[in-house]
Amino acid sequence: MKKITVIIMSFLSLLMSSQTAYGEEYVLISHKKSPVEQLTSQEVKRIFLGKMKKWPTGTSIQIVVNINKEVHSQFTGDVLKKSPSQFSNYWRKVLFSGKSMLPVYVKNDEEAINYVSNHEDAITYINIAHYDDTFKKIAIVK
Q: Structural domain boundaries of the chain?
């Protein structure tokens, strides 16, 4: 009985820590004039996989992929349920199929912030430590 209790407690602890980590290391951002305040995790996934291409206003969404290793890895795993290499392979297939253009790729949070600040239709993710109110934080709801 004691082993079962330890296993259950370990599982619950792991489950709680993974839920706490969701969204804590990164934040989804867009231009200050973005028409969106929140998106479901499914909508975010559709956006970053190029399946949702327009904002509710009808303007095209510009996907900005921040390849900062830690942020990119956590975002693709948490939201897209893909590893960074699976995400890259997905976009290669999309590009070669002719169905869509590649997202904009940036090297770090600074480049992501600069791009979003200058493009009203852009969306990206950055380390939460770099968030400030010069751009819009988009809440991810389940």
A: 25-141
Where do the DSSP E strands lie in 48-102?
62-66
Architecture of the 25-141 domain: 3-Layer(aba) Sandwich (3.40)
pTM to 2 decimal places: 0.80
28-81 pLDDT tens trace? 999 999 989 999 999 999 999 999 999 888 999 999 999 998 999 999 999 999
Residue 21 has pLDDT above 70, yes or no: no
d(CA 42, CA 95) in angstroms, rounded, equals: 22
Residues contacting residue 89 through CB under 8 Å, at least 6 positions apart: none
Cα distance between residue 70 and residue 78, in whole Å: 12
Report CA dihedral (76, 109, 121, 92) to the nearest 10 degrees.
Answer: -40
